[in-house]
Amino acid sequence: MKVKIPREINIGTYKYIVKLDSNLPDFGLLGQCQTDDGIIKLSPEQNINVRNVSLLHEVTHAIKDVFRFDADDDTVDRIAHGMAEFLFNNLEIEFDWSLIQGGENGICNHRKAQ
Ligand SMILES: [Zn+2]
């Protein structure tokens, strides 16, 4: 079953815009959750399976921030991989990125200047 990733995700009373952004601050960063700005940014330069887990990772950060529990990044990542296992390998859910900035396949046309 395909599930469209919405442009906006609600966690508690917080709203997060989901964006693809090839200009994440650190080289190699796959995603970023900015709770203060209400933005989840994901690098478009990762394969779709990695991007799916990156979204779960950043959403877990958002849940942690909104519902205020402590978890280091490694714990957040373990939760994300556990959720991925459940959603993708057990429920056979596929994420559809067509609504997210970057177009039908989630390929972002915005590239870093060379
Ligand atoms: Zn993280």
Summary, kept brief:
The protein is of the alpha/beta class.
Architecture blueprint of SSEs:
Layout lengths: L1 E3 L3 E4 L2 E7 L10 E4 L4 E4 L5 H20 L5 H18 L3 E3 L18
Parallel strand pairs: 1-6, 3-5
Antiparallel strand pairs: 2-3, 4-5
Helix pairs in contact: 1-2
Fold and architecture overview:
The protein is an alpha/beta fold. It has one domain. It has 2 helices and 6 strands. The chain has helices at residues 48-67, 73-90; strands at residues 2-4, 8-11, 14-20, 31-34, 39-42, 94-96. It has a 4-stranded mixed beta sheet, covered by helices on one side. Strands 1-6 form a two-stranded parallel ribbon. Strand 4 (31-34) and strand 5 form a beta hairpin. The structure holds zinc ion. Residues 57, 61, 73, 76 line the site of zinc ion.
Please describe the biggest sheet, giving its number of strands, its sense, and whether it closes into a barrel. 4 strands, mixed
Low-confidence stretches: 103-114
List the total number of helices. 2
Helix content: 25-40%
Distinct small molecules: zinc ion
The N- to C-terminal Cα distance equals 39 Å
Radius of gyration from the alpha-carbon trace, in angstroms: 14 Å
What would you call the shape? globular
Biggest sheet, spatial arrangement of strands:
2-3-5-4
Average of the residue pLDDT scores: 88
Strand content: 15-25%
Structural class call reads alpha/beta
Order of helices and strands: EEEEEHHE
Number of structurally distinct domains: 1
Let me know the number of strands: 6
